[in-house]
Design goal:
The protein has 16 helices and 18 strands. It is an alpha+beta fold. The chain has three domains: 214 residues; 161 residues, Jelly Rolls (Sandwich), CATH 2.60.120.260; 147 residues, Histidine kinase-like ATPase, C-terminal domain (Heat Shock Protein 90, 2-Layer Sandwich). Strand 7 and strand 8 form a beta hairpin. Helix 8 runs antiparallel to helix 9. The chain is rod-shaped. It catalyses: ATP + protein L-histidine = ADP + protein N-phospho-L-histidine. Keywords: Kinase, Membrane, Phosphoprotein, Transferase, Transmembrane, Transmembrane helix. One of its GO terms (molecular function) is phosphorelay sensor kinase activity.
């Protein structure tokens, strides 16, 4: 949460500087009585002097010279040329667009002017100097008619003006007590015009000591923060890019470090002397807004599970819009974006507080480090504002050191996250190594299994080859003698028909039937062995058309009635296989039927992924205990000479149905007919 505080510090610096007046208010009540002017007065005489001769100036004295300045709008007046000029107003130093007084209209942001102040200080004093704060304009300074310095270049147009912003310490002549201070300013880039902070009069030792301590504080803050930022940036790029919070924290530190450096010392303006100050200021504002984006993303990354997604979008888009406005808006409009930025940061601060409390109750212990850094940062922030401001010159060093401690705590948070992630990574590597070893063992086992499988495949190929040879032998070598035996029996019947008795004739007829039955059995075996090798291509056809072709080829007697499905359903299947199934089922229903009038009923229905077929008859039926046995090879419940059955037909049906991912079932009771149902996958 403290990630937001540094940005807020920079936005409140000017207001904080004005708070020094509270500590000097009592000291200047008497001085104010000695100033002979009114706030809205239009006349300012040459000899109007702020008399500080009765003031006691010591080695620790700092007197703000923020009132009684003659303000000459749209005039760049050099010393010695004020006699004929009338000031626009007599003012207190702050933004000239906000001067009070009804007599004249306040100036706009853009323009140029001259400030003039006459003071008288005591002769008996230590060596004193003037501290000129950073002015949001180009400025040119004289003291008692002597040109002291020019920051940038003061001009009357934007093209002539070169904006720069630096603070100065100007030593005053120890032999003089009256001083005329003349400051020319020109502003063509910022919404705040003129001198907005008090000019300080104090002992040179005090002012230089204060500035030295400010430099030390800046060295601590800028150096340490910059080092932390670049360390984590290198750490993210080269070593650990899995945690985005490291990148966001690095960007935050670098952005705040550059913002502090640019605000105090403007190094780019020194290195690139002719560079546009508007461009440099836009870079500074982008750095400020970038720190806000990085702080928000850092917070979101750490507490991703607790943050509402809408908040992430609103906060991120808010900062992105501000950054885009800085890029595209001209001066002075982009310099007015500090207020919405400050509001957005304060909302972030409040939401972070809520999320931190929620995370702590959710037992997220890494949030304790963030909470500690937030509390410490808030304490330092309030001390910075209310206690040490201007009261102790060492305070700024302590405060900046405190901020560095806060960022070191946040660094500890990141390193703790890295340590935990590294431990998890090591555990993952160990687990991966164990899995790799296990996989190696499984691979060896699989390799051995593959060897066994290859051997089995080799044996299977040999067996298939032998089976093919067997089929060839069955189809040629075995059937040929059967054909010859059948022919010889026929010849014997023909040659001896007149001499054969009835008993011999019966035996010869029975022999021929046995030979025919054996031939049919061989044909059925060949058909069964070729089922898996058949054509598997599917096509779309009408089921009733297939059944009509089948019935016409079977030459069924008129006494047989076959009822086809009422709906002529289009079926997507292997036509040859389905043909063989119905052929065997119909033949089986006719062969084993004991009725004079045979009735066969065929039905079909279509489900989401399969067809359901059924073939039922009015035959004798079979007992339930034989429902599974009928699908076994060579299974015959009734064997007689009149029935030419091989016992393989239903085994063929079962095998074809199984090949098409179907299930076959029987519904029958003895004497009540038989119904065979089977499914067929699309």
């Amino acid at each position: 949460m403290i990630l937001q505080l540094q940005a807020i510090i920079f936005l409140t610096n000017n207001w904080l500087l004005n708070k020094q007046r509270l500590k000097w208010m009592c000291c200047f009540i008497l001085m104010a009585l000695s100033i002979h002017h009114s706030f809205g007065q239009e006349q300012h005489k040459e000899d109007d002097i702020i008399n500080l001769k009765n003031a006691i100036i010591t080695e620790t004295t700092e007197i703000p010279l923020d009132s009684g300045w003659a303000f000459y709008w749209k005039q760049l007046i050099a010393p010695g040329h004020f006699k004929e000029e009338i000031p626009h107003k007599v003012v207190t130093l702050h933004n000239w667009t906000e001067f009070n007084g009804p007599e004249t209209e306040n100036p706009p942001s853009f323009g140029f002017a001259t400030y003039r102040l006459n003071i008288s200080i005591p002769k008996e004093r230590p060596h004193v100097s003037l501290y000129i704060p950073r002015i949001y304009t180009a400025s040119k300074i004289w003291v008692n008619g002597t040109f002291i310095s020019e920051i940038g270049h003061v001009g009357i147009t934007k093209a002539e003006t070169l904006h720069r912003r630096f603070s100065q310490i100007i030593p005053l002549n120890t032999n003089e007590t009256d001083f005329e201070i003349v400051i020319q300013v020109a502003n063509f880039y910022h919404n705040k015009g003129g001198i907005i902070g008090p000019v300080l009069l104090g002992s040179s030792q005090k002012l230089y000591n204060t500035k030295s301590k400010q430099i030390i504080a800046d060295m601590i803050f800028i150096g340490c923060l910059g080092f932390i930022g670049f360390f984590f940036l290198v750490f993210y790029v080269l070593y650990w890019n899995k945690d985005k919070a490291v990148l966001y924290f690095a960007v935050l530190c670098i952005s705040l470090s550059y913002m502090a450096l640019s605000d105090r010392y403007a190094p780019l303006a020194v290195i690139f002397e002719s560079t546009s100050w508007i461009l440099l200021t836009k870079i500074e504002y982008l750095s400020l807004f970038l720190s806000g984006i990085a702080a928000t993303l850092f917070f979101q990354n750490i507490f991703y599970d607790f943050i509402h997604k809408a908040y992430s979008k609103i906060a991120n888009y808010g900062f992105y819009v501000l950054a885009l406005l800085v890029i595209f808006l001209p001066a002075p409009y982009f310099t007015k974006l500090l207020l919405p930025f400050l509001i957005l940061m304060l909302l972030n601060l409040l939401y972070m507080t809520f999320i931190l409390v929620k995370a702590i109750f959710g037992k997220r212990y890494d949030s304790i480090l963030l909470l500690v850094s937030m509390v410490l940062g808030l304490i330092i922030f309030y001390i910075h504002i209310f206690f040490f401001l201007g009261g102790n010159s060492n305070a700024i060093v302590y405060v900046n050191f405190g901020y560095i401690v806060v960022f070191l705590i946040l660094s500890t948070l990141l390193m703790t996250r890295f340590s935990n992630s590294f431990k998890e990574l090591e555990q993952s590597k160990k687990l991966a190594l164990d899995q790799q070893n296990e996989l190696f063992l499984k691979t060896n086992q699989l390799s051995n299994a593959n060897l066994v499988l290859n051997e089995n495949l080799r044996v299977l190929k040999n067996n298939n080859a032998e089976l093919d040879n067997f089929n060839h032998i069955v189809s040629h070598d075995l059937k040929s003698p059967l054909v010859a035996v059948h022919a010889l029996v026929s010849f014997i019947q023909e040659d001896l028909k007149s001499t054969l008795n009835e008993n011999t004739k019966s035996h010869l007829k029975l022999l021929k039937n046995r030979v025919s039955k054996m031939s049919s059995l061989i044909d059925s075996l060949l058909k069964y062995s070729k089922i898996a090798k058949g054509e598997k291509d599917k096509e779309l056809f009408n089921l009733n058309e297939l059944l009509n072709d089948l019935i016409s080829e079977m030459n069924l007697l008129d006494k047989n009635t076959i009822i086809l499905p009422k709906e002529d359903l289009e079926v997507y299947a292997n036509k040859i296989e389905l043909y063989h199934v119905f052929q065997n089922l119909i033949s089986n229903a006719i062969t084993h039927n004991n009725k004079d009038h045979i009735i066969i009923n065929i039905t079909v229905s279509k489900l989401s992924t399969k067809y359901l077929f059924s073939v039922s008859d009015n035959g004798p039926g079979i007992d339930e205990k034989y429902h599974t046995k009928i699908f076994e090879m060579f299974s015959q419940l009734q064997v007689n000479d009149a029935t030419q059955s091989s016992g393989i037909g239903l085994a063929i049906v079962n095998k074809i149905v199984s090949e098409n991912k179907g299930v076959i079932s029987v519904a029958s009771e003895k004497g009540l007919g038989l119904k065979i149902s089977f499914s067929w996958q699309f």
